[in-house]
Amino acid sequence: QVQLVESGGGWVQPGGSLKLSCVGSGFTFSGYAMSWWRQAPGKEREFVAITSGAGSSTTYLDSVRGRFTISRDNAKNMGYLQMNNLKPEDTAVYYCKARRPDVEYWGQGTQVTVSS
After folding, report:
1. Residue 86 burial (CB count, 10 A)
2. pLDDT at 55 (0 to 100)
3. What is the full per-residue pLDDT of the chain (116 aa) written as tens digits?
4. Which of 26, 50, 79, 95 is deepest in the core (most CB within 10 A)?
5. By the 8 A CB rule, do 92 and 18 touch?
6. How far is residue 65 from each of residues 53, 58, 68, 85, measured CA to CA in Å?
7. CB 25 within 8 A of CB 11
8. How many beta carbons lie within 10 A of that of residue 2, not counting itself?
9. 3-state class of 29 per DSSP?
10. Measured in Å, how far apart are the chain's first and last C-alpha atoms?
């Protein structure tokens, strides 16, 4: 059974940090590009960051570049999103996605709330 499970969300004050984790099972994790997406209330889901299967290349949404870092540990089937200097506009449900050209899998999401 294929699963992607996110964790690490929560409430943080502006300027704070959180590290999201995503664990994959039931598929060959290293064979998939891994990305993070987010969806704020009343808005469409948007791309945040992506890393290649080997973790050798990364791309970020402009508004998070320099604050967020995507990484992965294929030996543990884990993906991560380190989020620093969080802003209220980062508040959203964050999802991880594993994708290859013919198939993609989504996690259930984890809530991140940034407020004072």
Report:
1. 22
2. 85
3. 999 999 999 999 999 999 999 999 999 999 999 999 999 999 999 999 999 998 889 999 999 999 999 999 999 999 999 999 999 999 999 999 999 999 999 999 999 999 99
4. 79
5. no
6. 20, 10, 6, 11
7. no
8. 10
9. helix
10. 40
Nearest alpha carbon to residue 34 among 108, 82, 106, 112:
106
Q: Cα–Cα distance between 56 and 35 in angstroms, integer?
A: 13
Q: Which residues pair with 97 in a beta bridge?
A: 35, 106
> Distance of CA 97 to CAs 4, 66, 75, 108, 115, Å?
8, 21, 18, 10, 26
Neighbours of 9 (CB within 10 A): 18
Q: What is the CA radius of gyration of the chain?
A: 13
DSSP string computed for 43-85:
S--EEEEEE-TTS--EEE-TTTBTTEEEEEEGGGTEEEEEE-S
Q: How many CB atoms lie under 10 A from the CB of residue 116?
A: 7
